[in-house]
Amino acid sequence: MSLIKEIDFGTPIRIADKTVTLTIDGESVTVPAGTSVMAAAMSVGTKIPKLCATDSLEPFGSCRLCLVEIEGRRGTPASCTTPAEDGMVVRTQSEQLHGLRKGVMELYISDHPLDCLTCSANGDCELQDMAGAVGLREVRYGYEGENHVFAKGKDGLANENWLGLDTSNPYFTYDPSKCIVCNRCVRACEEVQGTFALTITGRGFDSRVAAGPTDFLGSECVSCGACVQACPTATLMEKSVIQMGQPEHSKITTCAYCGVGCSFKAEMQGDKIVRMVPYKDGKANEGHSCVKGRFAYGYATHKDRITKPMIRAKITDPWREVSWEEAIGHAASEFRRVEAQYGRESLGAITSSRCTNEEVFLVQKLVRAAFRNNNVDTCARVCHSPTGYGLKTTLGTSAGTQDFKSVEKADVILVIGANPTDGHPVFASRMKKRLRAGAKLIVADPRRIDIVKSPHIKAEHHLQLKPGTNVALVNALAHVVVTEGLIDEAYVRERCDLADFEIWARFIAQEVNSPEASAEFTGVPADEVRAAARLYATGGNGAIFYGLGVTEHSQGSTTVMAMANLAMATGNIGREGVGINPLRGQNNVQGACDMGSFPHELTGYRHVSDEGTRQIFETLWGVSLDMEPGLRIPNMLDEAVGGTFKGLYIQGEDIAQSDPNTQHVTAGLAAMECVVIQDIFLNETAKYAHVFLPGSSFLEKDGTFTNAERRINRVRKVMEPLSGKAEWQVTIDLARALGYEMPYSHPAEIMDEIALLTPSFAGVSYATLDKLGSVQWPCNDKAPFGTPLMHVDHFVRGKGRFMLTEFVPTEERTGARFPLILTTGRILSQYNVGAQTRRTANSTWHDEDVLEIHPFDAENRGIKSGDLVALASRSGDISLKAEVSERMQPGVVYTTFHHAETGANVITTDYSDWATNCPEYKVTAVEVRRTNYYSQWQEKNREEDVSLRRIAGKSAGNLADAAE
Amino acid sequence: MSHDYHDPEAVKSANLARLGHMAGQIADYFKSYPEEQAVPAIAAHINEFWSRRMRQDFLAAFDAGSGELHPLARAALARIRPAAGQ
């Protein structure tokens, strides 16, 4: 094993149809037109010395180290800013160049500390490398002159040019004394991340990198780490490297946070992670990352990790640590007892959207083959199940239509109910790059989220609708398209079912769907809606990106279909730059759905009632399968409360925190007789469990994750499982104890079975993935390299199907008692239930959930920022701190659900999507008032954090999920 | 919406009410279609996504014409597949 180092071409590789051929040091080189001389040289392995250039950034031409000689040109142009031309004759080495470069390096080093041996970049310093490359042997200027290096001068007086170390960011330091002002960090912040937090202050010798007028933590910096990665010296450096030293080997793996699915190099010393560095050849992220993926991996080795199996008879008993054999045996015998007592349908499982495809596949296999029912569901139920239903009904497939790269060709980007800069930050950076290059943006969101207006980004239209009125808004957009003659008629005629189209067109043209009529519900001015519709329909390639703000409503599935209608009517599906794309929440939520985690579907979205499909599985698995759909998570909980559902195997999922109406969830859990939790932490749900099977982090196993663009990425083991077993091994053991053998010795064999059973995965294997890096399903004989774009010549279902999408207001209504609407969401630094990120320094940015409230509503209630307020709905009440914010509209309040002790889901109701039962997290009628007390639920929860989490022989209290 | 979780009868009737409510929501979606399309679509949706026990409980609770139910959902009752083999 060795350290993986991508080639740095110095400047971006251009894409062009035309090529140019030039001669570099006597060698003929052919490159795409627009490629720099520097990159052309590197393409044949010739490294021209450089400092300010790196191929993630546009050329800058400041360091003057990459000078070359070009025949017929005067002087020595910089190779980074000089495009290669046909017939050019370039020399990269000569006496003259050698002298010039040495002179440049001599100047640099004259104002740089010479502590190379003890420097954190030792072994990974481009400045050091360049000093070596140019043969620098002496610095004639000495070090006594004006400098940025020493805190004090020879005279003992303070050096006014010297700036101290900035350690404010929890993950990296800024050491101005080592800075060569190459601007790479500033440019990375602008060009790669798009935040513009960094700048150069001063001019000439006074030039300094600065995070605005403050330190890094206090600045606009989002801690993505792009600057650290771009820095050629130790100026910006990971604290982990400062502490541990340089890594010695690395492996490519996939981030376990959001659905973007970034590829990372896990850079290691033995089995210890030194740092995570985004992998340039990873197709989802192309070398970029966010604060979670790059830095927030410390949870994986946190002291709260439970590494020993545990059992207990009652949830009020303390846990007892036992052997794997005893825990598995106990779980199996309890499941069998429950089954004997309450029947075959009293058992079920929830698969994890954070586990690998292979692990998820095994859990649903266990349910269908060992429990012998179809009671399996997954957390997609509570996030993107309406996406599956809506896109399958209209287009024929339950997934997004594009790859992320496609956004580079979009002309109009419509963001609905998604907050990409917080929820999907690495994709947001790509989107912002395209927006800065001129694409237009329409945002439909109840809040003024960051992407509405941020540096060099401004939405043309922010349709600030009232929560719960998505269908009315999207219908109004479509109404404009239909009634103003903006339909792409040729496209519709060729590709869509015309009878359905005509019914839809008549429906949508009705006055009730006009922007003017729907404004009553949406609150969005009609002329704004009309302008947005015209822009989307006529502005070139129109691309829709959406999130849980679309799906988590009682009409979630209807909105998904309404967006598909809109995209089909305008011809915006089936090529680059367009499409309809769900931004998926969790790392493997797409995969969990693909793997047959839904109670009505086998892998590849085939209904359990389909004889032919069932037969394929029955033959391979050697059991007969139930043809009846099983229970969805909310149905399981209802039946548990009703007394007919008694045993649940939960793989890496915390429904007691993440699912709506907490008190209903916990009543359901408490009514069950055998709850088996497989997790890395003693989470909220584990308070109600009888068996705890320790899980493994993504660093501890091999497998695959599938991201929001259907991309199957490899997860690679870099350390042994802390508990001794990866989840897939534990599921195999449990199945065996239940009397069903699953003979796999490696996850690769599980993938082979998935490929065998699933037409859209037929071409997927670990060998394929190792060869291609990643593939997007469908991957089979028809598409051996995968499918970046779906529905290219025709829709997967044949003809695109327009569905009627009448607006039906949610039954959750505001009134005198509950006059405000609560909507929930997430923020950049925390992830989902926070079990991972709360156990990292990411809590520096967000250590508690707060309630955002508009100044108007706050003033009415005498609420100031920082006040404790009671938030009450028909489901329950909690107390949390208020933050007065103009991002909100009057009448709407907002909070996150990252912290268990807040209990945001105590408030949310059990209203759900009509088609899929996806909960309506985004609309809850509430009242807010000042208070001095935490709610009864919060007090009880605080007690139970201790009483339901005791472990025999261990001191109580230190295992609370809230602990850092 | 909140249950008394300790009273089995209250829980049972709340669960049946919930099934009726879910069927009503499905009917509310398909009501834009002509009745001859809507009714089979409502039944097909329930057959496709509800477990056999949910369907059985639903039919038992609403088949006899009892309980408040969306008229289109009621019209679909006859097309809902009864639990197989029971």
From TrEMBL, chain A:
2Fe-2S ferredoxin-type domain location: 18-96
Family: Belongs to the complex I 75 kDa subunit family.
Domain 4Fe-4S His(Cys)3-ligated-type, chain residue ranges per copy: 96-135
Domain called 4Fe-4S ferredoxin-type: residue spans: 170-201, 212-241
Protein name per its UniProtKB record: Formate dehydrogenase
UniProt GO MF annotations: 2 iron, 2 sulfur cluster binding; 4 iron, 4 sulfur cluster binding; formate dehydrogenase (NAD+) activity; metal ion binding; molybdopterin cofactor binding; NADH dehydrogenase activity
Example of a GO biological process term: formate metabolic process
Domain 4Fe-4S Mo/W bis-MGD-type intervals: 248-304
GO cellular component: membrane; oxidoreductase complex
One Pfam family matching this protein: Molybdop_Fe4S4
Gene3D superfamilies, alphabetized: 2.40.40.20, 3.10.20.740, 3.30.70.20, 3.40.50.740, ADC-like domains, Dimethylsulfoxide Reductase, domain 2
SMART domains found in the cross-reference section: Molybdop_Fe4S4 (SM00926), NADH-G_4Fe-4S_3 (SM00929)
Alphabetical list of PROSITE patterns matching this protein: 2FE2S_FER_2, 4FE4S_FER_1, 4FE4S_FER_2, 4FE4S_HC3, 4FE4S_MOW_BIS_MGD
Superkingdom field: Bacteria
UniProt keywords, alphabetically: 2Fe-2S, 4Fe-4S, Iron, Iron-sulfur, Metal-binding, Oxidoreductase, Repeat
InterPro entries in the record: 2Fe-2S_ferredoxin-like_sf, 2Fe-2S_ferredoxin-type, 4Fe4S_Fe-S-bd, 4Fe4S_Fe_S_CS, Asp_de-COase-like_dom_sf, Formate_Dh-H_N, Formate_DH_asu, MoPterin_dinucl-bd_dom
Automatic annotation (TrEMBL), chain B:
Domain of life: Bacteria
Protein name as it appears in the record: Formate dehydrogenase
Organism in which the protein naturally occurs: Bosea vaviloviae
